[in-house]
Design a protein that fits this description.
Helices cover 35% and strands 16% of the residues. The chain has 219 residues and is an alpha/beta fold. Strands 1-2-3-4-5-6-7 form a seven-stranded parallel β-sheet. Helix 1 runs parallel beside helix 2. The structure holds iron/sulfur cluster.
Length: 219
């Protein structure tokens, strides 16, 4: 099930793409940074999805699904598995603007789940992030490692310059770094910081899959 963000708790199928243009120190899927044996083409993925018991929420994640070499496969899979009640989420680090065809495909029932990496904030261009912010179907999500420092960067680099806008129906999701040894404490400290500072533009959520299954691979 989706363990993060505004769709937390929904049974889902994850399609994980290999390779990423960022290399975050806390990445929980470092195994996706290179090729591995047993890789699949898009037809294999379509077959797997169609054979699965539940497939009305499909999440494309990575690595980075919006790398140029991945976008065509993302589109082919979506085009071949969309049914009447399908929902699609594309999880991206927000460094790459999707091509026009994918933009159009995602307008139907898609969610852009954009998680800019604060460690690399200088690599982002305001125009690239603004494009995501202008989409009605975007959620912003941040992994928080150093509470004070990271939230300061979110305000000073993104919210105050108007690059990302916040609204009651579109809160910015903050989640503690899932690699933190004492995860419960990390959740509580982040929640208390947001409450005590009256930061109403944020929504604090855990990574639900970490609570259920820990740091196991494949969940
Ligand atoms: S952007 Fe995501 S997939 Fe890429 S290295 Fe960072 S955490 Fe890992």
């Amino acid at each position: 099930l989706q363990g993060e963000g505004l769709h937390i708790g929904i049974p889902s199928i994850f399609v994980r793409f290999n390779n990423c243009n960022l290399k975050c120190s806390w990445c929980d899927s470092k195994y996706s940074w290179g090729w591995e044996e047993g890789k699949h083409d898009w037809q294999d993925v379509v077959k797997f999805i169609k054979d699965a018991p539940v497939y009305n929420h499909i999440i494309f994640t990575g690595g980075e699904p919006l790398l140029r070499e991945n976008q065509e496969d993302v589109m082919k899979i979506i085009q071949n598995v969309m049914v009447a009640d399908s929902r699609i989420t594309i999880e991206t680090n927000g460094t790459i603007k999707p091509g026009l065809s994918l933009q159009l495909l995602m307008k139907i029932r898609g969610l852009w789940s954009v998680s800019p990496k604060l460690q690399f904030i200088e690599k982002y261009t305001p125009a690239g992030l603004l494009w995501f912010d202008l989409q009605k179907n975007t959620q912003w999500k941040f992994v928080i490692t150093d509470i004070e420092k990271d939230i300061r960067i979110i305000y000073s680099s993104l919210i105050e310059p108007g690059i990302i806008t916040t609204a009651v129906d579109r809160p910015v999701v903050l989640q503690p770094n899932g690699q933190t040894p004492n995860y419960n404490t990390a959740c509580r400290e982040l929640a208390e910081y947001v409450i005590n500072n009256n930061m109403t533009e944020f929504k604090v959520l855990p990574q639900f899959h970490k609570i259920c299954w820990g740091n196991q691979r494949g969940i």
